[in-house]
């Protein structure tokens, strides 16, 4: 029996029915699984400006069944720091979780994120990366992949996606990992592992946005499946920022069907070279790191403030 | 001033529709205004947009309060009283497949125009399956109602850079829209109810459930469906294969056996001798290897406890003639329905061909006896040694309310090989009966079996077991065309039997060295009526050769003997011969079908019992038409782990060559069922929900709820947004989406 | 209570620390801290203070400093920080968030000219920029006033009838870096003065809700009204706090404003912070010469004490405002508030003087010149700039 038990009262769901996320939103699946992984444990959610807070709906009701606060766009790690600090001094052990989009993570919130990571705050930071400013109608972000059409890159983005995992690893945070909404056991395991340790934990989840990606809502999990199997979105973990474990190697599935199912890639339909170059470069780096710095035994974590 | 209100859903393009209308009028020199109500629109959420058109500059900026036109982009948004604020004489334009007159309850007294814009947009690929973009299509319908010319409309679209498909759709809608005045009185707007309370920031009651019922956003809804698994589809006995395999997977052997016993009283036998077409069609074969259903059935028969038989409860008596699998099956099914049955058998023991034709190394006698004993625990009176003739049958028709005839194939096919004094060919079935009775040895002899079916294999392998020094099987076609169970052929070859493919016997003659079988080499020609390649003689001189032999066994097939039936009877499975003086005759088994397998005979029995029951009681127990078969395309193989098949124990060829011990010994992993469970868990449960929970686990909304035990999970449509992720998540094609 | 020597920064930092420590039996205290001249000494002091239940988080920006305060306050802790000038500007977004979230944070604003160009000296334009952020604002004229006001600020801010954050402002360098004598309170006194910090809308695990999500116009308007109402309540709560303060500390801190020699004054001068002390000295001198002038030290800027100001002005028909701040295109910011307060009176002559902008030293001579100018006026003009500037 799963914790997303079909008899659990709706008001106790972490993400309640009646939330205003679009149909087929990847974030929604991520939140359901977060709920599942945490079991009976109730987190505090800290959410900067993004679809994730809009989905809570209008005051005074709440789309979240756990204590949740909105923050200004760049502030979620700072606000979470305050919450985590007070929780610690009062012996409250509920996990403090930042749930932020890619805009709040890769772009406007990066300095705040970096500082909280450097201070090794006791926070789980989850970035649901839909590779777009979805809430404002789909503009380019630092997470937008090369070739993607957005409201501000009508001819397709010319630059590559930022490697946020490498940035976080460079902070030597105790744990950084990628999450796939098509690999449930892996997802749950990583959340549970993250929960089991202290310090700053960074989790990156590829989050399909049917509205922005111009894809079929029912294909959200399939798209992530292709992204993982083609190598576009590697599943891996980094312990203490310096020991790498690859969870699943690509099985050489072509990235073409990933591209063709999304109209945001219409500028590169039939021409996946740019993404393939990105995949190759990414795996050269990742394989190199995993070879030179493999995660062998159970990880040792850094001291927590 | 003309004012327009548009009600739609996020993603349908409602605001753009307002802009298209405004553009068309702007290009005609009008003052216009177009805007939407901006909130946190989400794909599918209800939204509003407005347009104003006037000859003079428009100076008000509030939302339209009393529109002249109300445009509804999605009929699921319609609620009673929706037109309350519409001006008198105002019109409603609805995107709907409905007819105008369907709105006589909702919009009495209104001019209502309808257009199926969704169909037009979807068929032209605008938007997604979940949210089709209907704005440009609707623009066509709206323009027509507004009395804009087609030219004006297209100019408005072009002004906003719409081209191609969008214009095609608009044109089509312009043509197709139908407007009609609905009779009746306009409904007055309802009284304004009291103002809702505004919550304080520090209220204790903040944090309640969201008020939005997101089910209203959906354009599709998920439904469960039960497809027919290919194994069930092809099972000649009509077994719920998927069902009993699933029960074994849950270690519920009693339930598994119960499921089989619904249709077949012979699971231990089928678990040994069935050619298992279920395994041939098993979708898992497309992925790695078929599920070993046959062994699972055998395990279920061994591990499950049989239900206690019921007693007869009906007056009508039925006679069953023939105690082979068809007769036993029919008798069993009828007895279960409460009919007292008399079972007539020509031989001394029950079982028919299962006893006389299947060697003990494939079907041990005690297994056969046990299953027959179970059947006889029902109200079935056996009469052995009754060789019935036509007049006996007519007598039965007077004494019973129905007669079922399944006497099998009593006439064997012969082959004229000339006259050989020393080696008169024997019939395979006769040979097998002799072997069964234990009064034949072939020590040191060379045996040739002619034929390619199961009887040929059985005869060949039996000959080996009673001492033959060399056994050859001679077959006209190649191994792949042989009708025998492939595994039987495989095992025969393992045991040292020689298979001569593409060889046809010509004549059997005596020589100094003993009997000689002259043979003709064959080649495969074009297909014959059966679809198999027709063997034709190889014309080369070396193609004719002789084989030495001591015994030739013919296994060329059998046919039925209809002399026992009333004259002029036409035999067809399940058909009742009516118009006789007495009870109707029903026919089944090989006698009627020549299907040649125990499982087919069992299926015949099930159907015969239903025919008889319907004739006698009027009650129809035939199942409804089958759901479509779950093809391999419906299965998402990548969702499953590769699992090797559970190992099966067999006697080694050396061990089995000289004895009649059972060759198959069941799963290696123990009589405790471990192997059977492991194998059953390989079942993909094609097209049948097996509560794997993936839909529950992948639902982005968490709205699968627990219903009653039989119902299982249900989709809470009050909240379901209709994304269809569950459909994609289902690895076995048991969920599909229907349009609302 | 001990009489000691302290800089303004030390006095303010010490008061923050004592207030934070006073909440040790409740949820504790927390601050986000980031350096900027001239407030840096405050966060240095806080970082070295041995809190028994508190944490000073050394963040990467003012924006995050306020972010930490918001998170900690949402968790029920007593929160505070300090900033200046461009730091406040960078923090602005979260200052508004704390205000509209109704979180009773206390922030020391050490007034410094906003740049560019680079200027580290006093000008109240930085904190006045936050006038619409739903924060209360106090302007302090002395070290003692500053220290007392910090303690008062927590008491008022955390009162359930108010539940709003407070800025306590002082002049950069003139107060912050000047050493003077203060009567410092003891921890016991502060413990007695400040009740446990209770934040009614803190995040609750037993009653989860979403804080700061979307609100429709009707709710937004209602919540703005609630804030306005709470600002009005603050006047009552402030008076209660003064009474209580006097009981515990033996002295009565200033309230919304301080009037001096206004009863029979024909002309009244209004100023804030240290400039008000210089003004007071000049008024004393010129009273001796028989001039019927008075002065008002404006302390509370938000809520703006209109009623108290009208009472203090009384029958006088000539009012001058001395502003050490400037809203380009308009004039002094205090002047605008005073003008709005006096707008009903057609006979009033109200004149604005911009003085000491960018930290220029405001001398008695400067003030005498203003009083001279004012005494000769028959009509008001646009805001007057210092003679050598205009």
CATH architecture descriptor text of chain A: 3-Layer(aba) Sandwich
CATH fold type of chain A: Rossmann fold
Oligomeric nature of the chains: heterotrimer
As for the CATH topology of the largest domain in chain C, it is Rossmann fold
CATH superfamily of the largest domain in chain C: Thiamin diphosphate (ThDP)-binding fold, Pyr/PP domains
Largest sheet of chain A at a glance?
Answer: 8 strands, mixed
- Main sheet record of chain C: 7 strands, mixed
Q: Which whole number gives the mean pLDDT of chain A?
A: 93
Strand content of chain C: 15-25%
Instruction: Give me the side-by-side strand order of the main sheet of chain C.
Output: 3-2-4-5-7-6-13
Question: What's the number of extended β-strand segments of chain C?
Answer: 16
- Helix amount of chain C: 40-55%
CATH superfamily of chain A: Thiamin diphosphate (ThDP)-binding fold, Pyr/PP domains
- Give the CATH class of chain A: Alpha Beta
Any overview of this molecule?
- The complex is a heterotrimer of chains A (305), B (740) and C (390).
- Chain A has a single domain, classed as Rossmann fold.
- Chain A has helices at 26-38, 51-54, 76-89, 102-107, 110-118, 164-169, 184-196, 210-213, 220-229, 256-260, 273-292; strands spanning 44-48, 68-71, 96-101, 124-129, 175-179, 201-206, 235-239, 243-248.
- In chain A, α1 (26-38) crosses α7 (184-196) and α3 (76-89) packs parallel to α5.
- Chain A is of the alpha/beta class and 305 residues long.
- The longest helix of chain A has 20 residues, at 273-292.
- Chain B folds into five domains: 2-181, 3-Layer(aba) Sandwich (Pyruvate-ferredoxin Oxidoreductase, domain 3), CATH 3.40.920.10; 220-226 and 689-739, 2-Layer Sandwich (Alpha-Beta Plaits); 230-307 and 639-680, Fumarate Reductase Iron-sulfur Protein, Chain B, domain 2 (Orthogonal Bundle), CATH 1.10.1060.10; 318-410 and 560-617, 3-Layer(bba) Sandwich (FAD/NAD(P)-binding domain), CATH 3.50.50; 412-557, 3-Layer(bba) Sandwich (FAD/NAD(P)-binding domain).
- In chain B, α8 (253-263) packs across α11 (293-303).
- The radius of gyration of chain B is 37 Å and the shape is elongated.
- The B-C interface holds B 39-40, 198-202, 204, 206-207 and C 102, 160, 163, 200-201, 207-210, 214, 218-219, 222-223, 226.
């Amino acid at each position: 029996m799963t914790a997303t038990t079909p008899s659990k009262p709706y008001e106790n769901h972490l993400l309640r029915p009646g939330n205003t996320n679009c149909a087929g939103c990847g974030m929604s699946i991520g939140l359901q699984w977060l709920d599942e992984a945490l079991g009976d444990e109730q987190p505090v959610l800290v959410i900067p400006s993004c679809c994730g807070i809009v989905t809570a709906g209008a005051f005074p009701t709440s789309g979240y069944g756990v204590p949740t606060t909105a923050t200004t766009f760049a502030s979620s790690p700072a606000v979470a720091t305050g919450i985590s600090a007070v929780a610690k001094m009062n012996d409250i052990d509920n996990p403090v979780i930042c749930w932020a989009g890619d805009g709040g993570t890769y772009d406007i919130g990066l300095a705040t994120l970096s500082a909280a990571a450097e201070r090794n705050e006791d926070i789980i930071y989850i970035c649901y990366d839909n590779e777009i400013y979805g809430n404002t109608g789909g503009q380019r972000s630092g997470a937008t992949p090369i070739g993607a059409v957005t409201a501000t890159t009508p001819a397709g983005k010319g630059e590559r996606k930022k490697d946020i995992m490498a940035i976080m690893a460079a902070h030597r945070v105790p744990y950084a990992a990628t999450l796939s909404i098509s690999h449930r056991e892996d997802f749950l395991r990583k959340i549970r592992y993250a929960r089991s340790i202290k310090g700053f934990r960074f989790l990156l989840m590829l989050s399909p946005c049917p509205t922005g990606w111009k894809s079929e809502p029912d294909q959200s999990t399939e798209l992530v499946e292709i992204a993982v199997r083609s190598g576009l979105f590697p599943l891996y973990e980094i312990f203490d920022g310096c020991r790498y474990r690859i969870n699943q190697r690509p099985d050489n599935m072509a990235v073409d069907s990933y591209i063709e199912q999304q109209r945001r890639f219409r500028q590169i339909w039939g021409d996946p070279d740019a993404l393939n170059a990105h995949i190759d470069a990414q795996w050269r780096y990742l394989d190199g790191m995993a070879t030179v710095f493999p995660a062998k035994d159970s990880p040792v974590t850094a001291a927590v403030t | 001033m003309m004012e327009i209100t548009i009600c739609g859903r996020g993603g349908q393009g409602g605001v753009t529709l307002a802009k298209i209308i405004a553009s068309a009028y702007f290009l005609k020199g009008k003052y216009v205004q177009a805007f939407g109500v901006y909130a946190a629109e989400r794909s599918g959420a209800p939204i509003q947009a407005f347009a104003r058109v006037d000859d003079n500059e428009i100076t008000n900026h509030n939302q339209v309060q009393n529109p002249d036109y109300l445009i509804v982009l999605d009929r699921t948004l319609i609620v009673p009283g929706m037109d309350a604020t519409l001006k008198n004489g105002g019109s409603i334009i609805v995107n709907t497949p409905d007819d105008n007159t369907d709105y006589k309850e909702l919009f009495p007294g209104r001019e209502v125009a309808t257009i199926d814009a969704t169909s037009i947009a979807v068929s032209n690929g605008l938007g997604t399956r979940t949210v089709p973009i209907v704005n440009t299509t609707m623009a066509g319908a709206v323009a027509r109602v507004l009395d804009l010319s087609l030219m004006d409309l297209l100019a408005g679209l072009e002004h906003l850079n719409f081209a191609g498909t969008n214009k095609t759709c608009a044109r089509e809608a312009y043509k197709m829209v139908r407007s009609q005045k609905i009779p009746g009185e306009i409904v007055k707007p309802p009284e304004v109810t009291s103002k809702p309370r505004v919550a304080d920031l520090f209220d204790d009651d903040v944090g309640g459930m969201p008020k939005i019922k997101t089910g209203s956003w959906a354009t599709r809804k998920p439904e469960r469906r039960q497809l027919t698994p290919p194994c069930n589809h092809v099972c000649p006995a009509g077994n719920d294969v998927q069902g009993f395999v699933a029960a074994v997977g849950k270690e519920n052997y009693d339930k598994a056996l119960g499921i089989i016993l619904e249709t077949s009283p012979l699971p231990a036998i089928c678990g040994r001798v069935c050619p298992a077409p279920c395994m041939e069609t098993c979708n898992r074969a497309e992925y790695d290897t078929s599920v070993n259903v046959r062994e699972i059935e055998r395990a279920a028969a061994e591990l499950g406890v049989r239900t206690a038989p019921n007693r007869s409860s009906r007056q009508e008596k039925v006679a069953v003639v023939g105690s082979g699998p068809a007769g036993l099956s029919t008798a069993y099914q009828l007895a279960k329905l409460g009919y007292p049955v008399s079972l007539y058998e020509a031989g001394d023991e029950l079982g028919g061909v299962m006893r006389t034709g299947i060697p003990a190394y494939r079907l041990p006698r005690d297994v056969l006896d046990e299953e027959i004993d179970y059947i006889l625990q029902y109200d079935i009176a056996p009469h052995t040694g009754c060789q019935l003739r036509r007049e006996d049958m007519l007598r039965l028709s007077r004494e019973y309310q129905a007669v079922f005839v399944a006497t099998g194939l009593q006439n064997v096919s012969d082959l004229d090989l000339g006259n050989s004094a020393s080696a008169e060919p024997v019939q395979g079935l006769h040979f097998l009966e002799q072997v069964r009775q234990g009064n034949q040895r072939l020590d040191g002899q060379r045996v040739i079996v002619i034929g390619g079916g199961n009887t040929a294999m059985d005869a060949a392998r039996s000959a080996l077991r009673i001492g033959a020094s060399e056994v050859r099987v001679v077959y006209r076609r190649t191994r792949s065309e042989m009708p025998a169970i492939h595994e039987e052929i495989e095992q025969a070859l393992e045991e040292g039997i020689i298979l001569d493919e593409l060889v046809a016997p010509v004549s059997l003659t005596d020589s100094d060295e003993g009997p000689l079988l002259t043979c003709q080499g064959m080649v495969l020609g074009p297909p014959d009526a059966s679809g198999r390649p027709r063997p034709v003689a190889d014309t080369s001189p070396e193609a004719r050769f002789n084989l030495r032999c001591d015994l030739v066994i013919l296994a060329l097939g059998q046919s039925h003997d209809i002399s026992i039936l009333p004259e002029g009877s036409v035999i067809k499975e399940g058909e009742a011969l009516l118009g006789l003086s007495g009870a109707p005759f029903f026919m089944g088994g090989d006698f009627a079908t020549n299907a040649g397998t125990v499982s087919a005979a069992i299926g015949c029995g099930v159907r015969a019992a239903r025919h008889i029951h319907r004739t006698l009681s009027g009650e129809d127990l035939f199942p409804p038409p089958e759901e479509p078969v779950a093809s391999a395309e419906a299965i998402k193989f990548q969702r499953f782990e590769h699992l090797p098949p559970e190992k099966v124990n067999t006697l080694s060829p050396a061990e089995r060559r000289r004895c009649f011990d059972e060759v198959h010994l069941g799963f290696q992993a123990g009589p405790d069922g471990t192997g059977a469970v492991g194998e059953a868990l390989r079942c993909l449960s094609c097209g049948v929900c097996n509560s794997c929970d993936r839909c529950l686990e992948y639902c982005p909304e968490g709205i699968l709820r627990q219903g009653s035990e039989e119902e299982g999970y249900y989709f809470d449509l009050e909240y379901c947004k209709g994304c269809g992720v569950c459909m994609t998540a289902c690895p076995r094609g048991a969920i599909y989406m229907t349009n609302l | 209570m001990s009489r000691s020597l302290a800089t303004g920064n030390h006095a303010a930092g010490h008061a923050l620390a004592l207030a934070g420590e006073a909440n040790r039996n409740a949820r504790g205290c927390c601050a986000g801290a980031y350096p900027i001249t001239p407030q840096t000494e405050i966060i240095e002091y806080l970082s070295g203070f041995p809190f028994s239940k508190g944490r000073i988080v050394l963040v990467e920006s003012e924006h995050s400093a306020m972010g930490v305060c918001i998170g900690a306050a949402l968790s029920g802790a007593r929160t505070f920080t300090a900033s200046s000038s461009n730091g406040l500007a960078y923090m602005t977004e979260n200052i508004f968030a704390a205000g509209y979230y109704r979180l009773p944070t206390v922030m020391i604003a050490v007034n410094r000219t906003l740049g560019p160009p680079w200027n580290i000296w006093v000008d109240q334009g930085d904190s006045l920029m936050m006038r619409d952020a739903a924060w209360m604002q106090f302007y302090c004229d002395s070290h003692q006033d500053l220290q007392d006001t910090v303690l008062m600020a927590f008491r008022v801010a955390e009162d359930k009838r108010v539940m709003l954050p407070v800025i306590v402002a002082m002049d950069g360098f003139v107060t912050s870096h000047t050493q003077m004598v203060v009567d410092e309170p003891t921890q016991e006194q502060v413990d007695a003065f400040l009740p446990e910090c209770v934040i009614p809308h803190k995040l609750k695990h037993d009653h989860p809700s979403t804080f700061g999500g979307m609100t429709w116009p009707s709710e937004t308007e209602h919540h703005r009204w609630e804030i306005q109402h709470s600002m009005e309540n603050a006047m009552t709560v402030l008076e209660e706090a003064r009474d209580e303060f006097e009981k515990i500390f033996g002295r009565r801190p200033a309230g919304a404003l301080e009037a001096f020699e206004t009863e029979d004054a024909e002309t009244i001068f209004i100023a804030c912070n240290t400039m008000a002390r210089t003004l007071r000295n000049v008024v004393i001198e010129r009273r001796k010469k028989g001039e019927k002038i008075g002065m008002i030290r404006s302390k509370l800027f938000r809520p703006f004490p209109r009623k108290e100001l009208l009472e203090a002005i009384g029958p006088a028909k000539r009012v001058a405002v001395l502003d050490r701040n400037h809203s380009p295109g308009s004039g002094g910011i205090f002047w605008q508030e005073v003008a709005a307060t006096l707008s009903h009176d057609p006979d009033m002559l109200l004149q604005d003087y911009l003085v000491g902008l960018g930290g220029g030293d405001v001398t008695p001579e400067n003030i005498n010149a203003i009083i001279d100018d004012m005494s000769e006026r028959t009509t008001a003009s646009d805001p007057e700039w210092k003679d050598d500037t205009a």
